[in-house]
Specification:
Blueprint lengths: L14 E4 L5 E5 L6 E3 L12 H13 L4
Antiparallel strand pairs: 1-2, 2-3
Length: about 70
Amino acid sequence: MIELKTCPFCGCKVDYAYNLELEPYGVHCPRCHMVVRFSRVKPIQKGEVYERVMSDIATKWNRRNG
């Protein structure tokens, strides 16, 4: 799994954000409560492995400057 860059606001380690069905959809900072939702991450299809979606989220998150 790809390691996520830290929060650009507080420098804290971030984690994946999950919806009510426990599917990853973005990134969440536990310290400053920042949430970034990635709407263009392909939705999870039946039987799809979460690791691919989490990899897409990490790639998009880590692409930012700073």
